[in-house]
Write a structure and sequence with these properties.
This protein is α+β, with helices and mostly antiparallel strands. The chain is built from three helices and 13 strands. The strands form three sheets. A six-stranded mixed beta sheet has the order 1-7-8-5-11-12, with no helix packed on it.
């Protein structure tokens, strides 16, 4: 579902806002149990499926909504269906229209993907949400951050903190889910290396099979000749036996 609405603020920006974002309205954040992305690293320019894991609720309260902000540079996102949630794509206008790979003019982008639970997710259970998207080609050697707000029956957790330069993200109380991006590799992206090896092996086997009959030709001719002589001898012996009878 594509929806145009006012984009929900995710409390990102200056140090003061980051400090506010670190607050967990429903209670303290459980250690080493952040909302995170399972995949990584991914290649710049590649089409990837990112899995966002929500491991717990808000200080014991069940989760009712997960809102994932999409970073700049990613315009199109395809969320995977989840039978326990409704999914909504929140759109925003691009400052400058662009042309996609098919020659179509693109005037808006997916700013957020929001999953709303039909039945609240209990604190003692986890769930995962998949987004299919293309990694920006100019994102090599960087990290992409997807600030996420987890709303619960009581309170919410804003997983939106982004480390400053030189800061270790593990030191943050409520870090935004992120994925590391590496430079594109032709062999890794398209699998040319593996396919080439397989093609060469198959070609060698075909060549060997084609050459085998030529190498065995003298043996085959000899076998046929011996067999023919044996047949002639057997016929002559049979005829002589009939005459004697």
């Amino acid at each position: 579902m594509n929806t145009r609405r006012t984009k929900r603020p995710l409390l990102i920006g200056t140090g003061a806002l980051a400090a506010t974002a670190a607050l967990v309205l429903g209670g303290a954040v459980a250690a080493n149990a952040h909302v995170s992305i399972a995949e990584g690293p991914v290649e710049a320019g590649s089409y990837s499926i990112l899995t966002f894991s929500v491991p717990h609720g808000c200080d014991g309260a069940a989760t009712t909504e997960v809102a994932i902000q999409i970073p700049e540079g990613i315009n199109a996102v395809t969320p995977t269906r989840n039978s326990l949630y409704t999914v909504e794509k929140v759109m925003e206008d691009l400052d400058t229209p662009i042309t996609d790979s098919h020659g179509n003019e693109v005037t808006e982008r997916v700013a957020q993907v929001v999953y709303t639970a039909a039945t609240p997710l209990p604190d003692g259970q986890r769930d995962a949400f998949e987004l299919s998207l293309q990694i920006p080609e100019d994102a090599a050697d960087t990290a992409l951050y997807f600030p996420t707000v987890q709303t619960c029956e009581q309170g919410e957790t804003a997983w939106v903190q982004i480390p400053e330069e030189g800061q270790d993200g593990h030191d943050l109380d409520a870090p935004a889910p992120s994925v590391d991006v590496v430079a594109a590799s032709d062999a890794g992206s398209h699998g040319h290396g593996d396919n080439t090896d397989a093609t060469v092996d198959a070609h060698d086997e075909d060549s060997a099979s084609a050459e085998a009959p030529a190498d065995q030709t003298p043996l085959v001719v000899t076998s046929l000749a011996v067999g023919s002589i044996g047949l002639i001898v057997a016929v002559i012996a049979l005829l002589r036996g009939r005459k004697k009878a």
